[in-house]
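Retry 2 of 3 after timeout on previous attempt. Resubmitting structure tokens to design endpoint.
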């Protein structure tokens, strides 16, 4: 079952919902995990956010109208859940969300699930210097190779604004990597 409309229909039909939801998880679990992981950095946080994302999808699938792709809708939920977690951690620790991001990146070296080298760690530090929206756009375009149209649907922003954000983000990252 790969037809998205058929999958949505089965997700919204009580007698097929469980089976269709298992299919949905198998289709999107890995992509969503890495999307979330690029935002929250930590494996444990990414797992928690992924679980929360699928719970929200399951509870709210009946409200899905098909105005966007199912994939875009789920990515929007995952993105919002990731940002919520970062903000919640910032509030709990009484620091800014930017400081939460820097803290998470500094902890990457001790994360047994982080397989990156010094260059990847430096790139993550550079990305962390960007404003939140530029981070999201850069991660989706660079790491996930999403099209601007898809990112536009997920972030509910114009493609032109996204292209500008990506271009500015790349310049800032290049500057950071050159200066550090």
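Retry 2 succeeded. Sequence:
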């Amino acid at each position: 079952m790969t037809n998205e409309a058929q999958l949505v229909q089965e997700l919204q039909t009580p007698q097929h919902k469980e089976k269709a939801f298992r299919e949905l998880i198998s289709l999107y679990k890995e992509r969503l995990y890495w999307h979330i992981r690029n935002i929250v950095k930590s494996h444990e946080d990414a797992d928690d956010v992924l679980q929360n994302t699928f719970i929200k999808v399951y509870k709210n699938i009946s409200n899905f109208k098909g105005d966007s792709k199912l994939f875009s809708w789920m990515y929007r939920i995952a993105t919002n859940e990731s940002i919520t977690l970062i903000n919640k951690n910032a509030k709990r620790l009484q620091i800014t969300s930017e400081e939460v991001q820097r803290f998470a990146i500094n902890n990457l070296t001790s994360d047994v699930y982080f397989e990156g080298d010094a260059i990847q760690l430096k790139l993550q530090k550079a990305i962390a210097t960007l404003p939140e929206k530029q981070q999201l756009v850069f991660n989706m375009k660079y790491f996930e190779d999403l099209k601007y149209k898809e990112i536009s649907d997920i972030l509910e922003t114009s493609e032109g604004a996204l292209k500008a954000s990506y271009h500015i983000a790349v310049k800032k990252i290049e500057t950071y990597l050159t200066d550090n």
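Attempt log closed. The longest helix spans residues 17-40.
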